[in-house]
Every structure is written in C-alpha cells, then in structure tokens.
Amino acid sequence: MKKNHLFASLSFVAVSALGMMSCNNSSPKMDEKPSQDNVSAGSAAGMKIAYVEVDSLMSQYQFCKDYTLVLQKKSNNARNTLTQKGKQLQAAANNFQQKLQNNGFTSREQAASAQAAIQKSEQDLQNLQNRLGSELDAETTKYNMALRDSLQNFLRDYNKDKKYDLILSKAGDNILYAAKKHDITNEVIAGLNKRYKPASKAKADK
C-alpha cells in the first residue's frame, strides 16, 4: 500500500463560489481610506461599479464559518476512520509476514488464504477512501452552490436600490488596484448575516 497517497483525496478544501479556496481573516491593504458613503461607489465610463472582498466575506459571513466547521468535522472523521483501519491492516500484514517467516502456516493453502484476506482488506480500504473522498467532495460542492445562491439572491435585492452596473469579487490580486470608496464588503456582509438563519434556528422557529 502506498501510504503517501492513502489520504490524499481527503484533504479539506473549501472552495468558495467566488473563486477562493480558503477562509482568511486578512484582507489586502488599500492605499485609500474608506469613503463614508458607499452608495457613491464609483463609475467608469458612466458605469457604477463596486467590489466585495472575498477574504472578508469568507471569514465574517456566518454561513461560511458554520459550514467550514461542518466540512472540517466530516474531513477529520473520515481521516480518523482511514487511519484506524490502515493501522489494523498494517498489523495484519505484519502478523502475516511473521507467521510466514516462522513457518506458522500449516500449508501453502492456509498461507495463500491469509494473504488473499489481507489483499481484500487493502482493496476494501482503498474503496472506503474513495467513497469518503467522494462524499466530502459532494458536500463541498453543495456548500459552494448554497454560498453562490445566497450571495446572488442577496445582491439581486441589494442592487434594486443601489443600482450598480457591475459588482466585482476581489480575491488576492485578481484586481490589481481598486479605490477603497468602491468597497461595499461591509454592507454585503452585514446584509447577508442579517438574512442568514442557521438550520438549527430555522427548525426551532418552525
């Protein structure tokens, strides 16, 4: 068994709908102070433009924080399960090797049967790894879709009054420069959090 690749498919990746892969508490520094009135966020060639900092959205939107914990828990549980079963398989393989060296099998058929059982366990473990990895990928995709829908639905309502022609996502250096007065991140995060109702609270309200 190639241990180096045993858990490769279970690395936790949180892919956001805005193209970010991780939740980061830091945001790129801007060289201008925030405008007191985000409603006046600017225009270019007659276009009214604004942007949202993805890092801040991912770290401050409660939905992102809640779902990140869910994905981390699923990933840790899967990793622990595979680690435990991997240790059991390694112990069985070591025991088989010792018995083989010490002539502990009464016949070749018995040795062959024991070896076949170990090979089957190894294949079962590989299948389990693939299944758990697929389940985690599916859960991450579900999260990404929910995040995208949440953000798009909010911006659709938010922009009825704001009337922006273009709202950009700013992640790292994908926008080389943007004046801080165009930043509507705080408004968007506040609005999203006001709308957000965790599943547990939603059930309680019903």
UniProtKB/TrEMBL annotation:
PROSITE patterns reported in the protein's UniProt record: PROKAR_LIPOPROTEIN
Coiled-coil intervals: 79-138
Pfam families: OmpH (PF03938)
Signal peptide limits: 1-25
Keyword annotations from UniProtKB, A to Z: Coiled coil, Signal
Family indicated by similarity: Belongs to the Skp family.
Name the UniProt record assigns to this protein: OmpH family outer membrane protein
Lineage, top ranks: Bacteria, Pseudomonadati, Bacteroidota, Bacteroidia, Bacteroidales
